[in-house]
Every structure is written in structure tokens, then in C-alpha cells.
Structure to design on (622 residues):
């Protein structure tokens, strides 16, 4: 049974957006996570960066399930990213779905 | 260019800086235009402020008022129609807002008017982030750029570098990203103050994280040192690339409603126009001894042991001014208001009436309530406000005990410079520690800066203690060189005939050269 997770990815400029988003979805798929990714381009929407106090780019925030998890940096190291964002966590109870 | 040329050329501005007024926003010193910081005295030291469009690194230990400096720099900008952005990595914006309000800056109001923006990058508990790979500070740059666009900011403060390093674990990334940030801010034409924690003395770098190499066009150092159990704060401009500035450490203090106040010591013009006009000392015999009274714009030191009559001299000096319709300012550091009023009454002077009529203002303060720097600033503020013709301080020695030797010397230099700049007649007293003869440390610091010195001494003669007075020096004037006996009664001080046939009064070792009463000149 796949686990559902939602993420916000903060990038700067469009060039970076697809790469980060694609890599995050790839890591989700490898772990049977049903990932949903929203991309925020801080150069176009800096007020969003202000709201979440984003300094480092890229920043990835796991919005759901709570609590929020937050990482910065490129996502090459799949194991570290998965661990930091809790992609491998076994989710109990209602399965983490909505 | 020599220091002298430098001093001459900027004289007009110096005067404004000494007076605490900064009439001009951007001062054109050849080469680099500058932005005034609003920090009284510091704009004098930097000869106009911080170079425009450049980054200045402000290095200091914890508690050295770095954040206040950064806030004051922005507040002054707003006063001059130059909005600002404050980037905080350390204290949350709401704390800064409250702290800056205590210094008299209504940041919340400016935020409402769109003149001030906080970028709050202070750590939020429970929102830890994990570094998983390479990153840059594009988020921060975008936020600053956005705030600058919204407010049309010209000034940016970043507080502090140390806190940035505290939030990110990869120091080399932070260093390169700060470098990039500084370059971006420069490209945007912003004038930036970045604060940084100072490094340990032994490390060989200025700031703890060694960031000065890349961000610093300019470096300003704040110090907060403990010397003889007394705290001493100083500010020093280490470099101001492409621009002139004054060298050395200058003491400063932080005051509510004013922020940082730097006490400029050197570079003050000591060639104030001197006046030939005389004013009465308040004692007709002393007027005679000084060949017509003190000069209108001179500083006089009265030195003597406790009880020799220094306070009486000050009382007569103040009363004479008040009687002549002048404004007189009396700083008392040894006695309370009540005691001073009572003393004056005992000598036939009605200080209460003078105060009521507005010709006298008495400020009686216990020296220990504030630092020397604070006292100096207060004295200066009182002078600026009252604009007196006469100022008296009784005594400097009482102030001497609350500061370090160096701090006291700076206090004296600062005091005499602005009293002279204001063209006020000053009478300061100094207490000698030895009852007979002797000198004080105070005199060592001040004697070369004074125009006249009056010595009051106990004289032990034939088994009696009497009082003697002499005018030791008086710049630009003839004066009586005798040591004269004086007595004190209900009308004040009465100066009589010179001591004759004795020597050694000034040193306290009086020897009879001959019988002083032999010729009937001196009555027992």
C-alpha cells in the first residue's frame, strides 16, 4: 500500500525546478511513496520564501504528513534525503492518507 | 596629504559633528561619497559616515552594541528619506522591534509606512533543517531583493555573520555564499553594514569566521573591555577603503533616545577664536590678581585639598554670572543640591533665587550612577540645551575615581574640547590628596588643557593652619605671582596680603625665611 506525502520545493529560477522535482518524485517512487510536489520559484514569488524563512536553495519541505520535515541541498544522496524527509517511515494507523 | 590639510579641509563638517548636528546626508570627501550613520561623533571619526554603495563589516564581541549600530544606521537613513532593510539571523524581528523602540526608534511605524522591512531569518524552534547536499543562498538574496524593491531601500543591515554560521553546518559553503551575497548587494548599489563576532586575540583574524577578506571594503571594530574592574567601550575604524578617516579608538556609550554616542577626542580644532573679553571671577581681589578677571572663553582649574575653598570659588563664580544676567550651569559631583544651596546661603549667595529666575541650573549627581562616558554626554547635552556662558564642575576628582586612567584622560580631553568649542567660561575643581601641598592626578591630565590654574593651599605657619591662594598660570595675561593669604566668612572669600619671608608653601614644607611678622605685613 503506497503512502501519500506532499512536498513543497523552493527553487530559484525555472531551470532548477524540474530537476529537483523529478529527483524527489523518483526517490518517492523507489520507496512506494505517492508524492505530490508543489514548486515555488523564490525569484518569482519571494514572499513565499519570506513566509517559510527560506534562505538556502533548494529547500524541500515535507508538508504532509505532519510534523513538517525540512531539508536543504541537492538531492543526489538518495539515502540521506529519504532519511531526512522520512520517506522510509512506516506509517501506522490510517496509513497517512487524508 | 597631511593630517593638517585633512583637518583644515573638513573643519566645517567637524564643527557640525562636534555640535552633534549633521546637516548633510552625503558628504563629498574626494573619492568616496558617504552616508551619515546618525551616530554622534562617529560621523566625525569617519569624516562623513560610511562609504556609499559599499559594505562595512562591524566586528565586536557579544554585548558591544553591534545590533544597535546596525539599527541606528538604518534609523538615520529613514530620517534622511533613505529606507532600509534589516536582515536578522539572530534575534527575532519582534524582539528587535521592541529593543530598538527603547532607544527611541519607532520601527513598527516605519514598517507601516513601508520605509523599513525586516527579513526575519532568525531560527524558529522546531523547524530544524537537515543539509543533504549542495545549496546556495538564492532564497535569501531573493528575499532581500524583494524587500529592497518594495521599500526602495538604500541601506541594508545584516546581523550577524556568526548567527549564519550557527544555522548552517558547512562553513565553506556559508563563506562562499556570503561572498556572493555581498557582491549581489553591491551590484544593487546598496550601502551595507554586516555585523560579526570578533575572534580570539590569538587567531590572527578579526572576526571569528574570518569573513573580513571578502565582505569588507571597510572594517569598524567595537570593543567592550574590562579594565580595573571598569567597563570601557570603544569604537575604531580599521579601514575605510578609498576614503579618509580618523585613526585610533574612541570611547562610546549607548543612551536611551539617542543610541550610540561616540566621543570624538582627536582632530578637534584647538584653535577656537580666543576672546580678549574678561569676566569677573566673582571675587574682586581675585579679579585684581588675574589682571581683570578670567577670559570669556577660558578654562580655569582650581586645585586644592578638601576644605580649602574650591566650592566657595565656584559658588562666587556662578553667583557673579547669575547676577550679571548670564546663564550658569553648575555640575556638582561631591555634594547634594541641599548641601550646595546651604553652603551658598552661608556665604551670602541665594542659589534658589538664581535657579528660579533661570540664570542658574544646578545638576547634582552622584558620580557612581553612570560611566564617565555617560557623564560626559550628559554634560554635553546640558550645555547644548542651556547654552550657558559659564560652566562649573565640582569636582573632576570625584569623576576620576569611577573610570580608568585612560578613560579619565579621554573624558578630560573630550570635556575641554567641547567646552572650548562652545566658547564658554569653565571653572573646574580638582582635589589634591595631600592636605598640605601636593598635586592630583587630575591636574596631570588637565593642566596643559587649561588656560589658567588657581592653587588653594593650607599653609601651616607658627602652629596655625591658614589658607593661601595663588594664580599659577594664566595664558595670555599678566597675573599676580604672589601667594596670598585668604580667609572665609559669611560673605565669602577675602584675599589679603602675600605671605612674606616663607618658602615651600606649594610643596607643603613651609620654612621661615625670616620672621613673617617682623615688618608687620602679615597679621596673625
Amino acid at each position: 500500500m503506497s503512502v501519500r506525502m506532499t512536498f513543497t520545493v523552493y527553487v530559484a529560477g525555472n531551470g532548477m525546478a524540474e530537476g529537483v522535482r523529478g529527483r524527489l518524485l523518483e526517490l518517492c517512487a523507489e520507496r512506494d511513496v505517492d508524492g505530490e510536489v508543489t514548486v515555488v520559484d523564490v525569484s518569482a514569488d519571494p514572499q513565499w520564501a519570506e513566509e517559510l524563512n527560506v534562505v538556502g536553495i533548494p529547500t524541500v519541505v515535507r508538508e504532509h504528513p505532519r510534523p513538517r520535515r525540512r531539508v536543504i541541498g541537492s538531492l543526489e544522496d538518495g539515502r540521506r534525503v529519504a532519511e531526512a524527509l522520512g520517506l522510509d517511515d512506516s506509517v501506522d494507523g490510517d496509513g497517512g492518507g487524508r | 596629504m597631511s593630517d593638517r590639510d585633512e583637518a583644515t579641509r573638513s573643519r566645517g563638517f567637524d564643527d557640525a559633528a562636534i555640535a552633534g548636528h549633521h546637516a548633510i546626508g552625503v558628504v563629498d570627501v574626494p573619492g568616496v561619497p558617504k552616508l551619515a550613520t546618525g551616530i554622534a561623533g562617529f560621523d566625525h571619526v569617519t569624516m562623513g559616515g560610511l562609504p556609499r554603495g559599499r559594505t562595512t563589516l562591524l566586528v565586536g564581541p557579544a554585548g558591544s552594541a553591534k545590533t544597535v549600530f546596525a539599527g541606528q544606521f538604518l534609523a538615520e537613513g529613514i530620517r534622511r528619506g533613505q529606507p532600509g532593510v534589516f536582515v536578522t539571523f539572530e534575534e527575532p524581528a519582534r524582539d528587535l522591534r521592541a529593543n530598538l523602540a527603547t532607544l527611541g526608534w519607532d520601527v513598527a511605524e516605519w514598517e507601516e509606512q513601508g520605509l523599513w522591512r525586516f527579513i526575519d531569518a532568525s531560527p524558529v524552534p522546531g523547524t530544524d533543517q537537515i543539509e543533504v547536499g549542495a545549496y546556495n543562498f538564492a532564497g535569501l538574496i531573493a528575499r532581500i531583493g524583494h524587500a529592497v524593491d518594495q521599500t526602495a531601500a538604500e541601506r541594508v543591515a545584516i546581523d550577524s555573520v556568526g548567527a549564519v554560521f550557527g544555522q548552517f553546518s558547512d562553513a565553506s559553503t556559508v563563506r562562499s555564499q556570503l561572498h556572493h551575497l555581498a557582491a549581489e548587494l553591491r551590484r544593487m548599489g546598496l550601502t551595507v553594514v554586516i555585523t560579526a563576532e570578533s575572534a580570539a586575540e590569538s587567531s590572527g583574524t578579526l572576526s571569528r569566521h574570518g569573513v573580513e577578506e571578502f565582505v569588507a571594503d571597510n572594517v569598524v571594530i567595537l570593543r567592550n573591555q574590562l579594565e580595573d574592574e571598569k567597563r570601557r567601550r570603544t569604537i575604531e575604524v580599521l579601514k575605510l577603503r578609498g576614503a579618509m578617516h580618523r585613526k585610533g579608538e574612541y570611547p562610546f556609550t549607548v543612551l536611551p533616545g539617542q543610541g550610540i554616542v561616540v566621543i570624538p577626542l582627536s582632530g578637534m580644532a584647538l584653535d577656537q577664536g580666543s576672546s580678549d573679553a574678561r569676566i569677573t571671577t566673582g571675587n574682586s581681589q581675585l579679579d585684581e590678581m588675574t589682571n581683570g578677571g578670567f577670559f570669556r572663553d577660558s578654562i580655569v582649574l582650581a586645585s586644592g585639598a578638601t576644605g580649602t575653598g574650591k566650592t566657595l570659588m565656584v559658588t562666587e563664580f556662578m553667583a557673579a554670572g547669575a547676577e550679571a544676567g548670564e546663564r550658569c550651569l553648575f555640575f556638582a559631583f561631591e555634594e547634594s543640591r541641599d548641601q550646595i544651596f546651604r553652603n551658598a546661603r552661608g556665604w551670602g549667595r541665594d542659589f534658589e533665587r538664581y535657579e528660579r529666575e533661570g540664570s542658574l541650573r544646578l545638576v547634582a549627581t552622584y558620580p557612581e550612577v553612570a560611566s564617565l562616558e555617560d557623564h560626559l554626554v550628559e554634560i554635553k547635552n546640558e550645555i547644548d540645551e542651556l547654552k550657558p556662558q559659564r560652566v562649573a564642575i565640582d569636582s573632576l576628582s570625584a569623576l576620576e575615581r569611577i573610570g580608568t586612567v585612560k578613560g579619565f584622560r579621554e573624558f578630560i580631553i573630550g570635556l575641554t574640547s567641547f567646552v572650548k568649542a562652545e566658547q564658554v567660561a569653565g571653572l573646574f575643581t580638582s582635589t589634591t590628596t595631600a592636605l598640605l601641598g601636593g598635586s592630583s592626578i587630575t591636574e596631570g591630565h588637565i593642566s596643559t588643557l587649561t588656560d589658567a590654574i588657581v592653587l588653594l593651599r593650607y599653609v601651616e605657619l607658627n602652629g596655625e593652619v591658614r589658607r593661601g591662594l595663588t594664580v599659577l598660570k594664566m595664558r595670555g595675561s599678566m597675573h599676580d605671582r604672589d601667594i596670598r593669604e585668604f580667609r572665609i566668612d559669611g560673605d565669602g572669600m577675602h584675599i589679603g596680603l602675600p605671605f612674606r619671608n616663607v618658602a615651600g608653601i606649594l610643596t607643603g614644607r613651609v620654612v621661615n625665611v625670616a620672621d613673617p611678622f617682623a615688618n608687620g605685613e602679615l597679621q596673625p
Observations:
- The CA atoms of residues 67 and 308 of chain B lie 49 Å apart.
- The radius of gyration of chain B is 28 Å.
- The longest helix of chain B spans residues 171-187.
- The interface with chain A takes residues 119-121, 124, 126-143, 145-146, 167-168 of chain B (CB under 8 Å).
